[in-house]
Fold these 2 entries.
Entry 1:
Amino acid sequence: MRFLLVEDNADLAHSVADRLRLDGHAVDSAGSLAEARDCLAAAPYDLILLDISLPDGDGRDFLKAERRLGRDTPIIVMTARIEVSDRIDVLDLGADDYVTKPFDFAELEARCRAVLRRRGTALQTVQHYAGLTFNPLNATLSVGAELRELRNRELRLLEILLAAPERIFSKDQICDRLFSYAESVTDNAIEVYIGRLRKKLEGSDARIETVRGIGYRLTSG
Amino acid sequence: MIRAPLSLRLRLVLQLLGIAAVLAILLYFTVRTVAEQAAETTQDGVLGAATLSIAERLQGGDDGVGLDLPYEAFAILGSISQDRVFYRIEASGETLTGYSDLPMPSETSATVVPVFYTVQYRDAEVRVAAVARTVLVARLPVQVLVMVAQTRLGQDAIAQRVANRAAALGVGSFMLAAALSLLTTGSVLRPINRLADAVGRRGPQDLRAVDHPTPAELRPLITALNGFIARLRGALSRTETFIAEAAHHIRTPLATVRARAEIAMRQSNSEETRETLRAVIRAVEESSRSAGQLLDHATVIYRSDRLVDETVDLASLLMGLASAFEPTAELKDLAIKVSGTDRPVKVQGDPPLLESALRNLLDNAIKYSAPETQIDLALSQDGVCARIEVLDRGRGLLGQGQSRLTGRFQRGKNSTDVVGSGLGLTIVEEVALAHGGRFELTEREGGGTCARLFLPLG
């Protein structure tokens, strides 16, 4: 996905952009509303991540203006003040959703996905691999003519593996991305999901290989 | 040692009773004096008439003063009471008849109008009327002094009766005044008591200005009280602003730390480093959650003293929240099932507070649910109350009481592996109480927790 990140705190902007790029997203960063307008004029974006307090104005005014001008690129507001009234406010002004800083990137991604799914305006969503057609927005996997639904954790597991086929991911690496840091997971919890995903991949050339003592990888053939 | 000043009621009652007592005593003496004078006047009238009628019968003659004592005059005197009657008729220094030792008037001026005086005679006090009359004896004028005396037993008896009546009157009027003064005290003090009641009835977090109708005399007190309340509210609001600011300033760097830690974790292959980074991320999560809930809690405290009273449709609120939490729940493959929201359920309340309470309940349910289970959000009403149930298939309460879990900064003993601040349920309970509702936390049949929020229907 292609993100426009509007955030004036350089440290945070940098970190968030880097973090999103790790998941394979394209991110442009704008430090002010003026820069954001320039970026929007130059390229189309799947999603705008918008901070509220910016040096040249209030993010909410930007939000209002965008909507008034009929531009409907999905906007997710990032707030640090989490007063309930603020949250309701931004939704009324036309934001698609909001996240509170510091955000869980898995949750941010889930919210982005939910917004794009609702809007149905994503630029590029479908991925192909070894006879599979994977649509992360709809959480579906097609093998031939058969459409299979993926649960969220199966979907994210497939995303992880599909981002770098043939690469070996350790159990820990997968766990860290699949489970929230706020919950504790047992070591073999991951095996359950690997098992399920294998079932969903049946009939295609793609398969998940266990690399003993190291981890898993997605491979074909 | 400083003694507490007398109560206003006691003061007023004592002073009013004092005044009533003085007035009653004055009344007693006045009535007595007036009555005694009236009795004396009556006796004097009768005595005077008797004396005059004796004097009338005096007749001059050649050989002396002739006297035909009119016994009916004595009869009149005697009929009044058991009083004894004395008389003396004196002419030219010689007692013609009667009691020669009956004292003469101090002033011997001859007068046809009776002179009255009181003297001690024969061990009794007597009232004497004296009349002088001139008769001709052997063609010469001779002054004859007629004195009639009467003991004062009858008059004393009357005086005694009157005194008794006056005393009864005094006591009666004192009692009446006492009763009236109690009533007056009550009615004078009623506005003060009402004000005290109105202020006393307030909840511990009610910081609205006192606008109870009060008499002018109490207004300075109310003004001072309201000034004090306003200062307190100002202090609270500054605290809230401070917490909000603090939350803002803590959250932004935390977001950076978290993003950086996640990046480092992705790039690190050392298990030790990853373990450290995991701990960092957990700590970040914990502090941001605490900051959020501290702010929520401050907001609840701040808002519950002046509840915004709006009509809130719980059905649409619940549906909105359920869809807002869906992506979060999805991460654990949790399904949120909402029921009972097909028609509006309206309560009166403060929308941000109600949202905050429900958000905390949902947040808890998601945190503690086992993956791939269902969270039920059920809305219902029973004519008096709206009931919101949040049911999860989490770890349940493990026998811990609700009061322990809703205490401030208290967390369940089975929750050490889940990030939390221990304020969530406190917030829910406070919001329920602020709206006149209640909050129940019970073990769910078949495992999990059942949280019920009851709110009075609007």
Entry 2:
Amino acid sequence: MTKQANFWQYNKVVLVFALIALTMPFWFPLMGGYSGLDTKIMIFCIFVVGFDILLGFTGYLSFGHAAFFGIAAYTTGIMLKSFSDNILPAMFVAVLLATLVSVMVGLLTLKRTGIYFSILTLAFAEMFHSMAMAMLQTWTGGENGLTGMPTPMLFDIKMQGASVFYFVTIVAIILFYVAKRIERSPVGLLMKAIKSNQTRLEYTGINARKYKLLAFVISAFYAAVAGALMVVYEPFVGHEFLGWHQSGEVVIMSVIGGVGTLIGPMLGAGFMLYFENVLSVDLGEQWLLVLGAIFMAVVIFMPGGFMEGIARLKKRYFTTVDGE
Amino acid sequence: MNDKTTDAPQAFFSCRELNAFYGESYVVQGVSFDIPEGDIVALLGRNGAGKTSTLRSIARAAEPAVSSGEIWLNNQPLHEMKAHEAARAGVQLVCEDRRIIPGVTVEENIILAQIAKPLGWSLEKIYSHFPKLEERRKQEASSLSGGEQQMLALARALARDVKLLLLDEPYEGLAPVIVQEIERMLKEVQTMGITTIIVEQNAVAALKLADHAIIIDSGEIVFTGTAQEVLDNKALREEYLAV
């Protein structure tokens, strides 16, 4: 296969995603999505793709990724308010800070595996949550949230409506491409081997701890970018950005969509945010009951999420002779 | 000053006063032995005698915990290393259970062994020696048969710059036909001059390959000699190996 053909082969998924994402403002309103929901979906696509590098590749289930999302959101907000209304320096500082925090949290939590790891990450996130609520109230606004940011600017462009959407979407496409690159790199392979058998991997001369931390920090970086973009999208940061509910939502999106497939969690994010929007109009908070039922149905009947469902359909209707 | 425990030994591989525990149970009790470069040792003994524990201690597995003793390979102190560092120093453990990394393909299993330097055989060389693996290279590794998984585990060890090969029950749970195939592979390993320790229930099969034999009983070495001596001494085999 030529190099060029390889490029198309590898990046087909990214291109399809880019096409669907960039045309969203044209078809999404026809489905009843409010304006701006498409931007929110793109932001969560970033969050879950990064999360899948940790959960899907290495198998480590974090219940605390809201911490990095929230820290980046608060930092962006504070930077916009007190430093400059340009989003680039604000996002840079926010993502850097959240990523540094993740190195620390990762070093401590990755000492344990399984449920212990999940609980440790949850504990850390809750710690940051209570810090935002109490100790750091002056900066975070505590219960009321952080408000009063100026309209975010990208140099001379006002970050409102379509410009936010396209900015977010381009970031999402780039980060999805990066995630796909990681997936098929030796590092991605190492991460997947950590999921299957860490001990055996070490016998091949590899320091698994280093790569676990790398996966953790990369996923936190994605969460931080998403958190920073949330403030660009809507100049408000609430304490619930840091809450366990936020962390849990990302886990649900990933599981519904199909853990470890990168594209699946994005489908999950789109599905969840869309139905939250559509169903909550009629059902209000009750829509969570429906979500719970859907979640259970997926876990019981389609443990591989939507992606497994798609694969099954493909197998039933489109099986070719060579099986590919 | 006690030179005995501070200097690297003369032998290529050397184990000195190795003690290891599984929790409270004392599984390796003061084991000491040397192996000249390129020789094959059969480590024998009954079930639970401490053979696998000794092997795992050498590979620096997390369990059993080595409490004291020294392990030297080619003047490198393995006892100061972690599992991945020992692997880089040239130790390759081929475990007795399912020996591959599941969830990834056959080829990816080999590629994983070729990320950390130093490297051994290239992918092409491995495939020329194990054509069956090339046939199945895109297949998920855990879908291989037991014999093929053993082959893959061996191939993975050879993909690294292996200086000490540790084979834990290479024949366990395999059909007689496959045993023959593995035997042929191990004979080839023998001709390559890789220093090897084989732990095996099937003592006779291991002794046919080995130069030396060590018998362990209740965590202690009870016999050291040539493989031929054990093959010739029926009383010894009956006492410690029950074969």
